[in-house]
């Protein structure tokens, strides 16, 4: 028995030693003189990227000027992201990331136009922000940006185009736009762009009107305040204006939807990883009053999530023209050193299971604006045909 126990112990010791060796050699590099044993996964990764290291060594040793290694690394990472051909997947250096965060958290000096990339790889204006140099210069949703300060731009260098349009307050920037197959030159003076995203008023018959210009980190709280204020005035129905709203933070959009929808689905997201698969529900009870949502070709992303949920859940109707068609979800990884990676992590689907990427959402009532009519911050029940239609619909539903 004693001998058997000794043999059993020896076998167990050999097994434990083998397992430790296995895990150590897979997880921890081991040095033997000049040689280093590394995990198989690392070795295979080094083999896969061997040419990248070769190029790095050649440039470091033989390039005519001394190489800034940090720029070399940043450029390599940017190349990895851009190789996917997805304009929404980008590595952001410190300046890029700072510019990106100001879009949703503060103010910046620029021209106040929101841009995206269409299916043909053009940089297209989603919407000019109200009261900004872009709007004052007559830039319109659907305009294609050809160049910025004589630098040609397209969907492959979207971030560069955005960066070029920003700059010190009071400085000028020149844009070449394509509209109706004609080139248009615009020179704009950069201003401080302040992000105020929610405005509201009470229309006749106690029909509330709330306009949201984008979804930044304060939008849902400001929306709730505006809605509660309208309720205290005896709200009978609500018009939500999402025209030229390019989207923004998904969470903010969901919070707004939760105020409006009865218990049930708002949106679902599906990605390659389980963590990106979400099903987001409204808690209810919702507004429980007639709702009409104004949309157009400048309504994109988070705006389409809200509009799609209201339409699919039959809580309200959409009035206007077809939306932009951006059905992708971006995630941001902050590396903690001022840089970040923004990448497409999932596609979102409306309650009816529709992904509108590249297609947009058709409104329940297609209504065009009069030619050359410009929507202002003040609701116009005499000339704004889309608003008039929405108002008439709500008025007819008031009990």
From TrEMBL:
* Family note: Belongs to the peptidase S41A family.
Q: Which positions fall inside the PDZ domain?
A: 89-166
Sorted keywords for this record are: Hydrolase, Protease, Serine protease
Species this chain originates from = Thermoanaerobacterium butyriciformans
What domain of life is recorded for the organism? Bacteria
**What Pfam families does this protein's entry cite?**
CtpB_N-like (PF22694), PDZ_6 (PF17820), Peptidase_S41 (PF03572)
Q: Name one GO biological process term.
A: proteolysis
Tell me what this protein is called: Carboxyl-terminal processing protease
Q: What is its EC number?
A: 3.4.21.102
**SUPFAM superfamilies for this protein:** ClpP/crotonase, PDZ domain-like
One Gene Ontology term of the molecular function aspect: serine-type endopeptidase activity
